[in-house]
């Protein structure tokens, strides 16, 4: 019966398509190929219509039946900025899994949610930003320096790991290519030599880059995604490369990307990158907007994520560019939309039938938990402090990240219905009353601010009701509503709108709530903004700056009366520049570390949950506090407030376990030496609290590995703005002693590597070789090991010390062994050749290094000759 139903459905579909083909113009005919349809549509468009499609907010062309779309959509670790979605661990945590198959599954799930959400929006005639199918992820820049705030969005410091993870992301998002339509389109960004600083990215010139660094470090992941994963979009970066903006860079875009790699799909600018060409105090490489727009298109940048391409019409009139050159870009853009089925009726697009129930559905939430578990990296475990006993009498949980759900979401995130904090995850493991909690300190200060935003409510919902208008004075239609149940931390510095449908500039917002005081006390209101704001309490204005410009933070004290309900309204407007609004209300108290320690010293063990958060590190932030600058870090040491508290906790004599939440490496020499265990949890997503508890109590045996080097001090690092890898960057060139090396991670069991073998020990430059590596689980627990293979080119004295070229995460039962087979294609032996100024396999002596870490002391080797 099922077979008959499928046959009938297929016959109906064929008849429908045949009928449509008879009635429609060629570009409307779904039976034709995307290229043919796009060419037919292109020739029916006016120049003005063509230009309108070269900007991310592409308007509808009703006479041709082309719906509006916004190319700007995000899915870094879940569908982002479009409301409800499953929030998986931040990508640096996904990299720590060293599990490409699971990462592929993750992004296939994300693509399912993306499709379900897009078609739901479409059914409601919504075509706004963050509602489309072209997703500007993955970020495959090399995390060359731990101070870079956006490094948490990457897959670490190694080109092989980044390329492997990127490949899994792209193929998961785009689908297997076997259907008529692509699932979604992914975007490899930011092409190509880009990794901070954030504070000067609109004017920075990455220069004096050696050909070795370019081809061995900065380009490999992009090459893999273009030539093997067939990514459908590439985003060019903000900065300049060797004097020329990346989005008009002839070497990067024309010579390498288009001509050498044969990329024929869409190149999109980073948001505002074309404006940087001519903007004051930015690159200033072009005198006019039309000159900038023309040069970018001629260089291959098809889509501008700003309004600069509106000047293309003037550029044509001035002879700066011909319409035929614009046609090349428009053709690629139209073809992409047809490949996604965006110009066809949903009845013809099978992907439109993905049920909305997949969005944060049970299977996806369970997978988010599994990925969080897999991402956990056990850095140290003295005297087998972990796992903790389930029969522990009393456990103290301390630290600024223990009960922070938003920290777990990181950045570029969706909004989950439920987040399990680390405190909640631990409490769920023990009887009621067995866990005591002390926040202890903030991330960077030794005071504690207890926010009362969660105690507020409006119309039966917790927090503040938010309303937005795309005018400065609350006129016109309301464009968005939201419910904000946490302290406000709005920052549009990374081109992040306050809510879907809200402008980046020229908008206003109103937030309102009610607060009923439980007792008589002084409540502190804290606010900072760019541009104007005003706060009203019971209709009386108590704090205001209703002008254009950035103002330093201000405070106001409410002397609250017990049982009185206060109506609070916050109004805000933004004119231009970078919109920011930060607000919180609550009680601030100074904390003495010794006193915190005294209150928990009767516990059997202490779990301190600290580190940093995406509120401090991230994309081009306006916030500047000690240790941080515009989202980057100026130091990599743990903030002093946390170390002081950790020292006091350790002085109790009780075991202290440090759960580190971060998107980048921290310098932890004292912690490694003195604490009983250290667990890196990254920003673990909505199920992070359960995952951390699973590891702490031994329900899950950790197997994550570090995708970055944990240095001992900021002084180990070269100048942040120096892009030369050979100055000691990453494990490939660093000659010092890290606290934890790249690839490091402990387990609750032990593994022994026996003598490996190669299928051949002498090969030609075109050959591949198979490595067979015997690994034994010598402990008492089942566990996973990440087998890592590094290659060293013995004749290359200026090249990397070693380079990861393959890895495999394997499960081995206690007391058993596995012969792990890892194929090494001839590309595994490619290195830069100074003589030919190219990357190639060169005859000579090589070492094949294998083990469970990049640490030379843990690696065994086999010699290989290439003839």
Automatic annotation (TrEMBL):
Residues 459-601 form the PA14 domain. The keyword Signal applies. Gene3D superfamilies: Glycoside hydrolase family 3 C-terminal domain, Glycoside hydrolase, family 3, N-terminal domain, Immunoglobulins. One of its GO terms (molecular function) is xylan 1,4-beta-xylosidase activity. Residues 1-18 form the signal peptide. Keywords: Hydrolase, Signal. It comes from the Bacteria. PROSITE patterns: PA14. One of its GO terms (biological process) is xylan catabolic process. The keyword DNA-binding does not apply. InterPro entries: BXL, Fn3-like, GH, Glyco_hydro_3_C, Glyco_hydro_3_C_sf, Glyco_hydro_3_N, Glyco_hydro_3_N_sf, Ig-like_fold. SUPFAM superfamilies: (Trans)glycosidases, Anthrax protective antigen, Beta-D-glucan exohydrolase, C-terminal domain. Belongs to the glycosyl hydrolase 3 family. This is Beta-glucosidase. It comes from Filimonas zeae.
